[in-house]
Amino acid sequence: MNKNDIKNLDEIKNIIFSNKLKYNVKKNEFFSQKIKDVKDIQKIRVGTAFSGVGAFEQALQILGLPHEIVFACDNGGIMFEDIVKPEELKEFQKIKKKQEKLEFVENVYRNHKRNNFVKQSYLANYELPEDRFYHDVRFLGKHINKEIDVFVGGSPCQSFSAAGARGGFEDTRGTLFFEFARCVKEFQPKVFIYENVKGLTHHDGGRTFSTVLNTFDELGYKYFYKILNSKDYGIPQSRNRIFVIGFKDKDVNFEFPEPEELQFTMADFLIGDVDAKYTLSEKAKNFILNGDRIEKKRAQINGDIALCQMARQQVNCNGDFVDDKYFLSEKLIKCVMQTESKSGTMKFNPTINTDVAKTLTATMHKMHRASMDNYVTTRGKLRRLTPRECFRLMGFPDTFNFAVSDLQLYKQAGNSIVVDVLMAITQQIIKTKVFNKK
Ligand SMILES: C[S@@+](CC[C@H](N)C(=O)[O-])C[C@H]1O[C@@H](n2cnc3c(N)ncnc32)[C@H](O)[C@@H]1O
To answer: Beta 67-73 vs 133-134: how paired, if at all?
Structure first.
């Protein structure tokens, strides 16, 4: 590289950096949220069920709280009943001891060829020996002989379709909330955090939620509950979730975090793509396109904009140009932008580039209509959010490792809890001093 090239490279850097993403401000904010004085705080022993991508673990990391992950548990959507062989099931049914049952179940999962993508994501991001990542919450309990200080989980929301009718092993999908409660009873953590969709509070005319609260009453914990929206806690996504925070010590007084004014829009969280206004100058383009840079694949041309692979590697710390695959075809655009159903009986109100993202869902990979899913324009073209943007909108910093396919990432992001909301809640829990050293 000669002197002239270096000058040109600087120019390119300037162009890319001039796209000052507010997301960088947000990233810096992560570090400012570190709790400064942790010397009085004990090492918090954490257990999670329905662990997903570990939103709570991420919150503890960002807050810089001393902690140890004791166990996590997630079946990755693979039901034990669906993978156990009939002869194994017979053997399983003879087992009496809980620990042996757990080991049997874990073995069935381990020997099965279906991949648990949630586990894959989790272990790529958190320090936990693989044998302490359990698969099925129904077999988890104090028999694992581990003490925890906090237990966290958000059971799948379908659980509530059959609330009240507690099923046994045979009708499993309906009753996972009760498994969460059972684990609290068995592990006796100082604190539990339970999360679920807002709809839980009015499901079945409020009867389901009464059952939930009665169950928590029976645990003998003092608990507090509130619906929080992530847009009130620093994240430009409207996501209402019910949080129940329980304390073993009944003298504890806990207050939910106060809402704060939103400083960011969804656009601030998008990848720093080289938009039309940042198109490279002729001079810069010449630099990229000259010589053997294209042949050696150090530079590439994408659509009508020249992208500089070299600059990407050296400059753009968000690492990113939006890949073509996230843009919508004409046919898809027509489909997602529909304003009414084919029969004309249903009307839709498609919106794009909204300031606050609509709730991210576990099925967003299917690309629902723009009246309910998030679409944005880049370089004047309509596209869906990338998995990285979805994770940002769930409060996960870009240090979160991606170890699975886009499809799985969309599902996992849509299922998660917003990290910033958990950070705000955790800061309030810390104020109660329950985690202070004795
Ligand atoms: C609504 S998501 C919760 C995700 C999590 N809160 C997070 O931060 O990513 C529910 C999770 O429960 C898991 N799950 C479903 N049935 C389960 C079971 N029987 N045992 C353990 N996990 C289960 C699903 O795989 C899914 O990841």
So the answer is: parallel
Residue with token string 């925890």: 148
Look at strands 191-197 and 150-153 and give their pairing. parallel
Burial 378-411 (b: 16+ CB within 10 A, else e): bbeebbbbbbbbbbbbbbbebebebebeeebbbb
Question: Where do the domains of the chain lie?
Answer: 3-262+418-431, 280-317
What is the structure's pLDDT at 203?
84
Which CATH topology does 3-262+418-431 take? Answer: Rossmann fold (3.40.50)
CA of 76 to the centre of ligand 1 (A): 7
- Contact between 63 and 38 under an 8 Å Cβ cutoff? The reply is no
Q: Please check whether residue 16 is in contact with residue 280, taking contact to mean a CB–CB distance below 8 angstroms.
A: no
Residue 113 CA to ligand 1 center (angstroms) comes to 20
Q: Do 348 and 340 form a contact (C-beta atoms < 8 A)?
A: yes
- 157 part of the active site: yes
* Ligand 1 and 174: CB distance under 6 A: no
d(CA 193, CA 422): 9
pLDDT for 317-358, tens place per residue? 333 468 889 999 999 999 999 999 888 899 999 999 999 999
pLDDT digits (tens, 9 = 90+) for 224-278: 999 999 999 999 999 999 999 999 999 999 999 999 999 889 998 888 664 434 4
- What is the dihedral sign for C-alpha 363, 369, 375, 379? positive
> Cβ(384)–Cβ(360) under 8 Å?
no
Spans of the chain, pLDDT less than 70: 1-32, 158-174, 272-321
d(CA 162, CA 173): 9
Helix (H) or strand (E) run with residue 90 in it: helix 86-94
Counting ligand 1 atoms within 8 A of each CB, the residue from 48, 71, 73, 75 with the most, and so the one to mutate, is: 75
Q: At 180, give phi and psi (nearest 5°).
A: -60, -50
